[in-house]
Known about the structure:
Elements: E1 5-15, E2 18-29, E3 33-38, H1 44-52, E4 59-65, E5 83-85, H2 96-101, H3 111-124, H4 140-154, E6 158-162, H5 170-186, E7 189-194, E8 206-211, E9 214-218, H6 224-234
Parallel strand pairs: 3-7, 3-8, 5-6, 6-7
Antiparallel strand pairs: 1-2, 1-4, 8-9
Bound molecules: adenosine-5'-triphosphate (ATP).
Residues 15, 20, 38, 40-46, 195 line the site of adenosine-5'-triphosphate (ATP).
Keywords: ATP-binding, Nucleotide-binding, Transport
Protein name: Energy-coupling factor ABC transporter ATP-binding protein
Pfam families: ABC_tran
Amino acid sequence: MMTAKLTAKNVSINFKERKLFEFDNLSFCEGDVIYLQGDNGSGKSTLMKLIAGIIKPNSGDVIATGFAPKKWWQSNSLLGKAVYLHQHAYLFDGSVEYNLRYALPKTRFSPQELQARVAQAIESAQLGSLLKSDATDLSGGERQRLAIARAWITQPKLLMLDEPISNMDKQSQKLVLAMINILKQEGTGLLISSHQTCGLTALCQKHWHISEQKVVESSHIPSFEQSQEFHYVSAN
Length: 236
Ligand SMILES: Nc1ncnc2c1ncn2[C@@H]1O[C@H](COP(=O)(O)OP(=O)(O)OP(=O)(O)O)[C@@H](O)[C@H]1O
């Protein structure tokens, strides 16, 4: 099977008169684990929405290759090719269990495999005691764990996680890190945004940095320890 890949070329994004960022060529494909870094407001979420097909660039294109062709009656848009997990997780009205089981990928897994995957997600995200709770009653960190567990079950080819562990305590961060690590091992392409380095960024192999209105790619991942020290100093 061909590798699923999204390539964005000659992109520029403006909001009214203000240029947010531009770049010549970036691609995101299965197997990639990319750390997307940038200050608050630099455009990390906007870049993810562009790749997800939620917004269109002012100039440039995003091209998808390696995906199954759509049926003739379906529009061949970018939407749905890469899953975008919003910073503030969107959940459905209903219980945690309903949220986990909603729209499961019945074509990719057998019913037994799916059952096992759901059970593993509940265990990994420690949602067992919350299954019957209303998703709207969850705490912020629990909601994020649920949203990630749901994405984990579906094992998308490409997954974008927008600040996935912000506002999480250490224990929740550890759970999420372990789930994301499994997706990495399964070959899911991951694009992970964070304004600061964290345990997650240590999993990454590529670095996209939005700085001075440009998105720059490199293979150098800023180290986690260094930045902890930096934050310690800057907090005082
Ligand atoms: N639809 C829009 N119309 C106008 N301005 C927008 C729109 N979407 C985003 N912006 C602006 O673009 C800038 C970048 O927003 P974005 O959410 O992409 O940043 P970010 O890097 O993800 O920030 P943070 O780290 O704070 O989440 C912000 O100043 C925001 O106000």
